[in-house]
Amino acid sequence: MQSAAKRRKLLEIPERMEDVRHQGLEPSQVGLVATKLERAEQRLQEIEIDVVVKREELEKTVIEARHQKDQHRKAEYFEEMQRATDKKTLVFKTTTVMKLLNCSTLKIEEFFGSSIPKSYVVLSHRWEADEVTYQDVINNAKTLAQKRGWAKIRETCRIALERGHNYAWVDTCCIDKTSSAELSEAINSMFKWYANAAVCYVFLSDVGTNQAFAESLWFTRGWTLQELVAPRELLFFDRDWDLIGTGAQLCDVIHRRTGISEKILLHGSAPGPSIGALLSSIPVAVRMSWAATRVTTREEDSAYSLLGIFGVNMPMLYGEGRGAFMRLQEEIIKETNDLTLFAWIASPGDSGAQDPPEYRGILASSPREFRNAGKLELSRDAKYNPEVGTPWFMSFSVMGEVGSGVGQKKKKLTDSSEQYTMTNKGLRIVAETTMAENNTQLLGLGSHDSSDGSRKEIGLYLEDQGGGVFLRAKPHKLVKLAKNAPQTSHTIYLKKHIETEAVTQIATRMKFVSHGAIRFHVLSSSIEIISAYPARMWNPQRLMFITDGESSFAGYIYLRLTANVSLDGVVACGFDPEVKMWFCPGWNGRDAIYEAAMSGDMRRMREIGVRDGRRWVTGERSKKIIGLEVSAGPGQQGFDVSLRQSNCTVM
């Protein structure tokens, strides 16, 4: 400022020289003074330029220092990302970039990974008209006061400062929603941000003097579920920002309103397990029931808002509609073998149809279908599930054919390196099922209704579509399973989803799925069917090859005769347009057809079967070998083959 004033004075030199002349100085003295003044002006200009240069250098140094600091933070962040990748964990579970409002300056600051402040508050609220966005805070600071949503942000920061917190996170303005990558990362990190916050302020804009707390629309929104569950402490405020009470004080009311258990609502009140550990102890279907009556503006958000509740992560694909909820369930399958994921009940409108469909896939269409699952309890801790042997075990994995033929190399039931595979045929599993009426099967879900004193396991209906693919039948109901009912373990594919438009076509086709089937009837207790090939077409409950109307087929059953001696053998069978139905039995060590079947040579097995066996077209419908009589006859939609112990000692 002083140099500028001096410069203005120097610009007045001509007038000042005139003043000097009037003082009676000699002309030579006047020239000397003028020269000194001009030199002084030049020197001041040089000094001023030097100051400007040094100021620019200083500013550049400061900017570089800030940049280096940011780069250091980013380096730490990406190092954490790399470490997370090395550990095969999802990056957004361990590190993230978080934007926070400085409660004093009302400016947004960015933090990386471990530099995120330990103490910050979060705001939970219902989005309404004229909310403040990230761009508003960054670019339109002068007009923020004109936005309706600014008042609650300002109040949040004011209360936070009063309570000793310097930063706040508000979902409307602390996410740059113009960046799809940032939005996806924020949604995947949001549950953690709420869980790590010092306190969550819940602003209920529709609750006043005459409005009951439990009637607030805040309890009906999808996104506010995780905002209720995750934080350690909640403070509820009414529309005037008067404190209604804490989450602990209002626990009973919230429990009755939401169905969420007290141990979840009070998890931050005393030292104990983390919220993640507590949630993992709650059956999947029960957690789904918490969201059953909640709504979201965008259909996809009904799934995205539940990521933290189930401890899973997935990318955001707005525009996929119900596909988001399907993907959510697939991610849940990767994290748990809790079968209550399938304990949903369809009702009119759930899949867009007027009436409940006759068939569905194994996955639910929305959280609404879990509205009746709030009282389910696991029959035992899912982590203790054995690989086989209990009626409710299910292994989500890539598996070899179960019972693909004695003498062939068996694969392990569970391949731990390739778990949780969803194939293009559906979810491939090993399950123990029970036969039910109308050729349906029952799959137990390892859980029971806590309000039912019988503690009977609940299950669902499955129906074989052929090719080892099963659909959920009667999706509008669950069933209580009889205790100690006989079960069969086998590999099946559960269709994950059926389009509404295809249900009628499938229902019509299912009426003819057994057309051309070959069904076996064991008439002697000394005969036991061990396995069958191809296993994908074998229904072990119905002892039937479901050929699904194919024009040709070849297969065999592997059986054991335990009479006076133990014998292992096969009954090969098949059909084609030329010879119609054929069948041929054979014993181990005696018959060529047994060796062909065990070697997997289906072409040779058919040749031997047609040559040495019995053919329907010639009327030969019975064949005896040592200890076994095999006969065939017409079935309802295919062929029936009867197996009976025989006293025959010669072929």
From TrEMBL:
Coiled coil ranges: 30-75
Domain Heterokaryon incompatibility intervals: 120-210
Record Pfam families: HET
Keywords: Coiled coil
Protein name: HET domain-containing protein
Record organism: Colletotrichum higginsianum (strain IMI 349063) (Crucifer anthracnose fungus)
